[in-house]
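Dataset card, provenance and construction

Sequences and ligand SMILES were collected as paired inputs. For each pair, a complete structure of the chain with the small molecule in place was predicted and serialized as structure tokens. The example below shows a pair involving S-adenosylmethionine. Curators did not alter the output after generation; any descriptive sentences attached to a record were derived from the structure itself.
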Amino acid sequence: MEELLQELESKELMFENYKVEYIRLESGNILYSERLILIKKIAEKITGKFSLTKPEIVLGITFYENEWIFGINNKNNFLWNSHHTKPYSYSNSFGVKLAKTLVNIATFGDSNSKIIDPCCGIGTTIVEGLSMNYNISGQEINSLIAENANKNLIHYNLPPIVLNKDMHLITNFYDTSIIDLPYGIFSHTSLTEQKKMIETGKKISSKMILITFEPLEKIIEECDFKIIDFCTLKKGNFKRHIYICE
Ligand SMILES: C[S@@+](CC[C@H](N)C(=O)[O-])C[C@H]1O[C@@H](n2cnc3c(N)ncnc32)[C@H](O)[C@@H]1O
């Protein structure tokens, strides 16, 4: 902390209408009284007007993994919360948080990473990928569903990029595919069909995130993929299996 305070002093920081906040994490919390002292010490090193009620700049301080971290705290604007209520949705769709998480796992934050959701349904993953500025493509074999996916994208001012195409016809190669295998109350997808889709996943991408409604470890390995991580998620009476494969 002493080091940090010295550094702040040497930088001669100046802000108008700023506020310093202690950012509470799951670990590294300190008492409220200590937080106030800390905030005061930091504020003393900054020139400018302090504003508690209408700050234009929020500076954050926190303690994480044995280090004090300080900087401008750009809060998430939470715009993606509106993605929960898409114009078109169906029971098989991913939740927004799951779609976001899958895109994060697929890209690891690399905006150059090329990803595809070749069975994208109404485009839950595509909405998240595009709104986080990732290079994501989407395909859907059912023309009505593909059309609705594009309407969802337009609704959020995103480009309607979903192609109405069979995934088995993809000729491009991607860093990662996110494949949510078709399943359903109305149509059953046989193991042979699911295997064919995993084989296509192998053909079109070096990494695959596979989402299934039944355990498919054996088939994944038969398709020459290695499972590097795995989890299950419960959705009502169903369980989703999520495999990260390379
Ligand atoms: C489980 S749903 C995907 C749901 C999607 N994750 C969402 O959140 O909306 C699987 C989708 O794959 C599509 N599909 C099935 N076979 C396909 C194929 N060969 N090529 C492209 N899409 C296919 C189905 O029409 C269905 O919409």
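Derived descriptions for this record:
The two ends are 43 Å apart (CA to CA).
Residues 2-72 form a domain with the THUMP fold fold (CATH 3.30.2300).
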